[in-house]
Amino acid sequence: MKKSVYSLVLMDDVVEAIDEMAYRMGTNRSNLINQILAERVSYITPERRMQDIFDRVRNMMDSHFQILSQASGANLSIRSPLRFRYKPTIRYKVELYRETQRSIFGSLTVSFRTQSERLMEALNSFFKVWAVLENSFSGENFENGIEYELSDGKYIRSLKIPVSVSGMDIDTEKLGKAIGDYISLIDSEIKLYFAGIDVPEKAAEDMKRLYSENMDKALI
After folding, report:
1. CA distance 155 to 112
2. Under 8 Å between Cβ of 79 and 89
3. What is the full DSSP assignment across 146-169?
4. Do residues 181 and 60 make contact, with C-beta atoms less than 8 angstroms apart?
5. pLDDT tens digits for 50-103?
6. pLDDT value of residue 8
């Protein structure tokens, strides 16, 4: 959205209070004033829209997840423990874009911090199975299928609006729920896979079964 520079005459005490509030919120004076004015005239800014989506995601996360403090208004990070040797932690980072591009409105990064080569190999095996599973079952619901990047211990997936749904038909409540559902699904799939990792073929079949039973949670 276009922004322009405007001159405003404000009391010094008001500016000081705005600056203190902006600092506490992790933003700057211009963004905070813009948000306050937008709320006053009932206009939803991209920043307010992103926060409404994140609030919905937070409310969906149960005790298995830990919400991390936000470093940016456009990002939300969530952690989930994995019962496996080395006690790794799964990290989900949701990034939302100010403007939708080619039906893509954000991305989800799933990552692990580990120095174990064995765990890294297992993670890459999981993500490869997951990518095939997603495109086989859900790819046709999206323009250009499921778009993702895969590197050592990291899976980055585009968050997209299904081709059958108009962008105008998806409000912040629905988007937040869709993101929360997807995170819960992939978290369950990761834990299912690692629970049966000694027999990877069976673990992959178990993943397929779980996915087929919860396809409605993958439509994003």
Report:
1. 10
2. yes
3. --EEEETTEEEEEEE--TTS-GGG
4. yes
5. 889 999 999 999 888 999 877 677 899 999 998 887 778 899 999 999 877 778
6. 83
Angle between helical axes of 200-213 and 172-195 (0-180°, round to 10): 160
The overall longest dimension of the chain from CA atoms, in Å, is 69
78 in Cβ contact with 66 (< 8 Å)? yes
Low pLDDT (below 50) residues in the chain: 168
Instruction: Let me know: does 130 contact 189? Beta carbons within 8 Å.
Output: yes
Q: Do residues 107 and 118 make contact, with C-beta atoms less than 8 angstroms apart?
A: no
**For the whole model, what pTM was predicted?**
0.81
pLDDT for the residue numbered 166: 62
Q: Are 73 and 51 in contact, with CB atoms under 8 Å apart? A: yes
What pLDDT, on the 0 to 100 scale, is given for residue 168? 46
Q: Reading across the β-sheet that carries 148-151, which strands appear in turn?
A: 66-67, 75-81, 89-101, 104-112, 154-160, 148-151
